[in-house]
Specification:
Layout lengths: L2 E3 L5 E3 L21 H14 L7 E7 L5 E7 L2 E3 L2 E7 L3 H8 L2 E8 L4 E11 L2 H9 L3 H9 L9 H14 L12 E15 L7 E7 L5 E5 L3
Length: 224
């Protein structure tokens, strides 16, 4: 598919869709020696730019059979060096992370012509931390976590709505909705973080931080 319709009598060529990047640059001299400091700096700028859900990130996982899958999830904490998100442990991503505890994350902030790529091992957060975060969620999201057998086939939307109505009735007189045992957090423990800044002529700036055995970070410039 090289051309796509775009309004009456108009077709767009995919090959001709391109953007010139020229907002910022990224140099070794300006970058922090600590990638977490650099990430927080860029994240704050994404917030200030009023990007919708700047904490949205692509999470890529791999099954034991070597089959990749990816989806958008929301970053909920940066804890020390770790990136934390929450999900249904019985979902496809939850099962794949249990079988192969490694993942990649990508943040893409188009308005700033930036992306951040993160790779590392994955482990569950403590049960107490998962429950603490669950208690802070809106009540509707709490009930939704119980209703959804995430990634499982359902017969109809009406089936989900019936389950939600039943749960709402069940917890109507209760102040607190407890966290399901099948729901909780994961932390991605990065060993590699890359910062990408779009530049003219596709000569993009790419700085890669690699974790050394002594816990320090090595910085390399990558070819665009």
């Amino acid at each position: 598919m090289s051309d796509i319709p775009h309004g009456p009598g108009i077709r767009l060529s995919l090959a001709d869709l391109r953007v010139t990047y020229a907002r910022e640059s990224l140099s070794e001299a300006d970058a922090s020696p600590d990638p977490l400091v650099q990430f927080k700096h860029w994240f704050q700028q994404a917030v200030e730019a009023q990007i919708i859900e700047p904490n949205a990130m692509t999470l890529a996982t791999v099954s034991l059979a070597g089959l990749p899958s990816a989806r958008i999830v929301l970053l909920k904490e940066v804890e020390g060096r770790d990136f934390v998100f929450y999900t249904n442990y019985e979902s496809r991503k939850g099962q794949e992370l249990a079988a192969n505890p490694h993942a990649a994350l990508i943040f893409y902030w188009a308005e700033l012509e930036r992306q951040v790529r993160i790779e590392g091992g994955v482990e569950k957060v403590s049960r107490a931390q998962s429950e603490d975060y669950f208690d802070k969620r809106p009540r509707g999201s709490q009930l939704g976590a119980w209703v959804s057998g995430q990634s499982q086939v359902v017969q109809s939307k009406a089936e989900l709505e019936r389950k939600l109505a039943d749960l709402e009735a069940c917890y109507r007189s209760s102040e607190r909705v407890p966290a399901p045992g099948f729901w909780g957090g994961f932390r991605v423990k990065p060993v590699r973080i890359e910062f990408w800044q779009g530049r003219p002529d596709r000569l993009h700036d790419r700085l890669q931080y690699s974790l050394r055995e002594d816990g320090s970070w090595r910085i390399d410039r990558l070819s665009p």
